[in-house]
Amino acid sequence: MSQKLMPRLGSAIASTILSLFSAVSLVGVDTAQAAFLTYNFQAEGGGGSGFFKVDNSSLTGIDFEGIAVSEGRLDTYLTISKDYYNLAGAIALFDQGEFLGLQASGGESSISIIPDESGAPYAQYETSASWRMENNGSFSLFSGEKYVTTIIFSTGEGIVDRSTPPVNYAPVSYTLVDTAAEPVPEPLTAGAAALALAGLSWLKHKKKMAV
Fold first, then answer.
1. What distance in Å separates the CA atoms of residue 180 and residue 75, rounded to the nearest whole number?
2. Who's near 111: CB < 8 A, 6+ residues apart?
3. What is each CA distance from 131 to 31, 72, 144, 167, in whole angstroms?
4. Helix, strand counts (H, E) of the chain
5. Alpha-carbon distance 181 to 97, whole Å?
6. d(Cα 209, Cα 159) in Å, to the nearest integer?
7. Residue 193 — φ and ψ, nearest 5°?
8. In this structure, are residues 195 and 17 in contact, taking their beta carbons and an 8 Å threshold?
9. What span, in angstroms and rounded, lies between the C-alpha atoms of 154 and 124?
């Protein structure tokens, strides 16, 4: 290879490496924008309250998207044996990158048999609780109920007790309380910078040899 072509080759290599460095730097900026979002929420009508966390790194901001919740809980009276409902795996809904609300559901039930004075089965009590969070257009809504079904064995009669008032389509409000940024991939950026510096050093060296 001629001495005249060496500086041109070195310049081309350096330019290519610097372009790579710029591209990797831009990737780092995009990654830095990703965050772990923490929301608090409150359902009206006594439905309950709680929080959840979601990682928005996969969010594209295009059309309608759903991201699984990594951690969260719902505190509500609609429980039987649970202290609260675990919201991990629920879906956080976004439209054009804007948060809409949570899509989740749950419930539990228990059955107990009550004996009469002789010890024979008298009645069966089934306690059930269920709830749901959904979105209706631009509104986030909560619904749920808790009731007891009593079956009298001697007559076969079933009695449903809904003395606890249900919650029907109560609005849910959300508050963003924390935005923890994801770490930027420093090794990639540093590596690209090292390559660029190495290319420039090689170019300077070849220029000195050509003089």
1. 24
2. 124, 125, 126, 127
3. 36, 16, 4, 9
4. 2, 11
5. 17
6. 99
7. -65, -40
8. yes
9. 11
Task: Convert the pLDDT of each residue in 17-50 to its tens digit.
Answer: 444 334 333 333 343 357 899 999 999 999 999 9
Whether the CB-CB separation of 104 and 78 falls below 8 Å is answered with no
Question: Which residue bears the tokens 């089934």?
Answer: 126
Sign of CA dihedral 31, 53, 58, 173: negative
DSSP one-letter code for 58? G
Give the C-alpha distances (Å, rounded to integers) separating 70 from 85, 167, 177.
14, 26, 16
Contact 47, 85 (CB under 8 A): no
CB atoms within 10 A of CB 38: 17
Q: What is the DSSP string of 124-142?
A: EEEEEEEEEEEEETTEEEE
Model pTM score: 0.68
- The H-or-E segment that residue 93 falls in is strand 91-95
Taking 70 as the pLDDT cut, the residues of the chain under it are 1-33, 182-211
Alpha helices in 34-156 (DSSP H): none
Dist. CA 99–CA 203, nearest whole Å: 50
